[in-house]
Amino acid sequence: MNIGQAANHSGLSAKMIRYYESIGLIAPASRSGSGYRHYNARDLERLSFIKRSRDMGFSLEEVGKLLALWQDRDRASADVKALALQHIHALDVKISELRSLRKSLHSLVDCCNGDDRPECAILSHLTDPSTPDQGIERPGRRVD
Asked: What gap in Å lies between CA 9 and CA 129, rounded to an integer?
């Protein structure tokens, strides 16, 4: 199977497949006599595994660890679970940060008149964040 077919089968783009190969996430594909990459069933399984892992939000580093665990038939499932739990914690932190950013942006939007005048609380805050923020919450800072 060539790279285009492998891309269609795995859901990855050909560019991503080449990138994963360049960073060592996948082994270099075998080449045909004319130099085209060739992928076998095992390669496709690995590419699909990477795609599903990335869809779950795992970083490339985490995907590499998952691939190593997947290939290690002597591994403990506890190792996989620990990695997944770490990822859940990172997602929880990110969700909290995003909620804080959303709240801050809502506060700025509420402070903006949104009329024909040029004054805008959003742009003022982005220009000079030290201006009074009227309770605007920033990541890492809680407003009670």
From this structure: 48
* Cα gap 100→102, rounded to integer Å: 5
CA–centroid distance for 10 within its chain: 18
Q: Which of 27, 49, 24 minimizes the C-alpha distance to 38? A: 27
Q: State the sign of the Cα–Cα–Cα–Cα dihedral 87, 88, 91, 96.
A: negative
CA distance 126 to 47: 42
Pair 85, 128 in one domain:
yes
Residues spanned by the domain of 144: 76-144
CA distances from 11 to 8, 56, 134 (A): 5, 14, 47
Task: Give the tens place of pLDDT for each residue, 92-102.
Answer: 999 999 999 99
Structure pTM?
0.76
The tokens for 141 are: 């800072």
